[in-house]
Automatic annotation (TrEMBL):
Full protein name: ribonuclease T2
Top-rank taxon, per record: Eukaryota
EC number(s) reported in the record: 4.6.1.19
Signal peptide stretch: 1-18
PROSITE patterns: PROKAR_LIPOPROTEIN (PS51257), RNASE_T2_1 (PS00530), RNASE_T2_2 (PS00531)
Amino acid sequence: MNKAIALAAMSLFAGANADLQTCSTTSGYSCASSSTTPTCCFNYPGGALLQTQFWDTSPSTGPSTSWTIHGLWPDNCDGTYESSCDSTRAYTNITDILQSQGRDDLIDYMDEYWVDIDGDNESFWAHEWGKHGTCINTIDPDCYEGYTAQQEVGDFFEKVVDLFKGLDTYKALAAAGITPSTSKTYTLSAIQAALTKMHGASVYLGCSSGKLNQVWYFYNVQGNVIDGSYKAVKTLTNSGCPSTGIKYVPK
């Protein structure tokens, strides 16, 4: 058996034997329960999950008609958060881990849509995993049945990409007539309305020198963060943009 076939077989075996524990569909959503006990089916204390995106223009990153991925962050339901929760799992070889799990298509997608402003994607991914991914308690290794080393890493990155694919910020803004321009400016309320319409709840908008460059989508989750049910909830953080005159410059 050649190396490629052996690797594929190993990945299939790992995926078939490393499933997260099944969670009841009757359990409550994170942040909406009085429980303060983290379990493999209840995200705590990071009960709010934020899918965060960038619009980088100096330098430009990613396709000219798409925002890019920043990460998936657990928030303590109040705008505060824990970070870098498990140094023993702060892996720096994310590409190697994903390749060992047969997730080559995922790597290709991340190289296009989850990109570092300085061109060092590997370090960016490692940072997002170590700082935020290790703080998501429902993907702790002991939450897996038949756990295989680093399975939670691949599951995390796959989930972030899946969420991102369902949140096309560029398309939602364009549908409201909000497109990149060197001369036009937009209001905070118009941008917020367009993205709230897509997401189902208000979002955080970030600006730098009056230029739109970030959006955070907030969720509560019923069950674990990979297989659970996601419910859009309003932002926990006030916007970092002015009310008028917001620039949305082209890449």
